[in-house]
Amino acid sequence: MSKRARLGRIAAAGLAAILTATTAPLAVLAAEDKAPEAAAPAEAAPAAPAPAAAVPAEEEKVPASVTHQMYLDMKLGKLDIHGDNAVVNALVLQRDIPISYEYIATLMRTPNAFGEGPACIVCHGSNEADKSYRGLDLSSCEGILRGATEEPQRPVIVSGQPEKSLIVKMLRNNRMPLGVSFFEPVQSDSIDKVRAWIEAGAKNDEDFEANVLPLFNDPQAFSGGIQCTECHKSFRDPPSFNEVNLTSYDAIMTGAFSKTRKKQGLPGIPIVVPFDAASSPLFQRLTMNRMPPGVDPGVPVHANTLLLARWIEQGAWCK
Predict the structure, then answer these.
(1) Residue 256, domain member (yes or no)
(2) pLDDT tens by residue, the chain, 319 residues
(3) Cα within 13 Å of Cα(80), Cβ side
(4) How many domains does the chain have?
(5) Are residues 276 and 129 in the same domain?
(6) What DSSP assignment string belongs to 304-315?
(7) Is the alpha carbon torsion for 230, 232, 233, 238 positive or negative?
């Protein structure tokens, strides 16, 4: 077969053929591509070499592109396709696809990019606090990296660490108790008690036992009509979301996902940072509303939030 005919056949197959697994195995295509168009007569044929041992299909050829790698992973059953964002997980997050700032900029300008609501730059389009909430400018890469300029000034991006980036938390985490109104004040007697306890060092003392711990058993403490311990009463999930247990001081300080992480030889993820309420997930979840404003708390984390997190993980480059 001529080289032109061979290339025409491969081009006609295209991505659709790969996705439906109708193309020949990669090793076969590679072997055909290397075959001469016409063999010249040889004066003396060398002795035929001994047949090579069979090579497993996955070792026949290192895929030269992400498309070939995807096809090979499909063939070998290696693609982990499940959950609400299965396609993004399988095609982007499970492989080394770079996320560009150009895509992030598009998200910031697009309504419903992270859930039903206005584009981010409607409320966060300037570093001037009299024109933009928290003085946060999401209309440029420099503005995103600069963070909130209104006091207290706070970065929203921690390069390389999406799990510590405020912007990811705001797009992912629901305010607690689940379903509390967006317009519910973030300052109240109960919230102030939690803040004061953490800022004083989060000690296991009389103040905690008398004024803080009872709040987690009070359905009216945080205006949600349900006590915190209804959903956070043990280290098992279910019934306790994220394996968070708010029934005692020791349980609270054990943190989240302690049972799961113990199997890996790791401690739970702290939900209280002594002396720093603003950095404590327990306090954050009582005061920080999920974005965009008014998004249904039952809506899963949007695929674009995962891509934003990957951009941050990759270094949050502006170019």
Answers:
(1) yes
(2) 544 444 344 333 333 333 333 333 333 223 333 333 333 344 444 555 555 455 454 445 555 687 777 778 777 777 766 666 778 887 888 888 999 999 999 999 999 999 999 999 999 999 999 999 999 999 999 999 999 999 989 999 999 999 999 999 999 999 999 888 889 999 999 999 999 999 999 999 999 999 999 999 999 999 878 999 999 999 999 889 999 999 999 999 999 999 999 999 999 999 999 999 999 999 999 999 999 998 998 889 999 999 999 999 999 999 8
(3) 6
(4) 2
(5) no
(6) HHHHHHHHHHTT
(7) positive
In a domain? residue 282: yes
Please state the three-class secondary structure of the chain as a single string.
Answer: CCHHHHHHHHHHHHHHHHHCCCCCCHHHHHHHHHCCCCCCCCCCCCCCCCCCCCCCHHHCCCCCCHHHHHHHHHHHCCCCCCCCCHHHHHHHHCCCCCCCHHHHHHHHCCCCCCCCCCCHHHHCECCCCCCCHHHCECCCHHHHHHCECCCCCECCCCCCCHHHCHHHHHHHCCCCCCCCCCCCCCCCHHHHHHHHHHHCCCCCCHHHHHHHHHHHHCCCCCCCCCCHHHCCECCCCCCCHHHCECCCHHHHHHCECHHHHHCCCCCCECCCCCCCHHHCHHHHHHHCCCCCCCCCCCCCCCHHHHHHHHHHHCCCCCC
Same-domain status, 196 and 249: yes
pTM recorded for the entire structure: 0.72
Domain of 130? Answer: 101-173+300-313
Residue 234 falls inside a structural domain: yes
248 with 307, same domain: the answer is no
Instruction: Check whether residue 283 and residue 199 sit in a common domain.
Output: yes
Joined tokens for residue 21: 């697994």
Instruction: Please report whether residue 134 resides in a domain.
Output: yes
